[in-house]
Each structure stands twice: as C-alpha cells, then as structure tokens.
Amino acid sequence: MMTSVDTDLIRVLADPLRLRIVTLLARETLCTTHLVEETGARQTNLSNHLRVLREAGVVETEPCGRYTYYKLRPDVIASLAGQFADLAESARTAAGNKRSCP
Asked: How far apart are the C-alpha atoms of 60 and 54, rounded to whole Å?
C-alpha cells in the first residue's frame, strides 16, 4: 500500500509559531489577545499566522463581540496523524524488502 502525506499541511505546521499556536489551541479556544500573551508575538504577525492556519483548515473562528476566538479542528490533526500511522505501517511491512543494486 502506497501512502502519501499531506505535504501542504506539514509545511503549514512546520513553522514554530504556527505549531505553538496549534499546541495552545489543542488545550482551549483562545482569542487573538490570549495568543499574543501566550506567544509574545506581535498581533499583526500572529494574525498572519492565524490566517494561514485558517486557510489550511487547521483552525476555525468563532466571533464573540469584538473578539474573534480560534479553535483547533481536531479532525484535521487526526487525519494527518493517520497518514503518518499509515506511513509507519508501510515501513513495517516493507522492512524486509531490499532492492538490489545493478
């Protein structure tokens, strides 16, 4: 079984600040103000990273008065984890396969 991993999603999550945001949102739904406090990032920089995460489908927004709350979409993370699990299973299955050199 040939398995591919969502490389676009990996690129999105490869950024240290975006990964930190995802880690924080895995614990609770937060607004931009909370994320600025937790990460120490500037609000404009944080907003740009949140836009990337939103466009990738990793987070979704929930308006609340003048604030916007962000929450993680666990199904997206679970899907990526499943892709890695499939890849690991393929590696286990193919452990004895060895192509000979010409």
From this structure: 6
Residue in the structure block whose two tokens are 């937790």: 38
The torsion angle over the Cα atoms of residues 48, 15, 36 and 46, rounded to 10 degrees, is 0
Angle at 44 between CA 23 and CA 48, to 5 degrees: 60
Paired residues of 72 in beta bridges: 59
Q: Please name the residue ranges forming H helices in the chain.
A: 7-14, 16-27, 32-39, 43-55, 74-93
| C-alpha closest to that of 14 among 52, 48, 57 | 52
Single pTM value for the model:
0.85
Q: What is the pLDDT of residues 1-45, one digit of tens each?
A: 445 678 899 999 999 999 999 999 999 999 999 999 999 999 999
- Report d(CA 62, CA 52) in Å as an integer: 16
The amino acid that residue 59 corresponds to is V
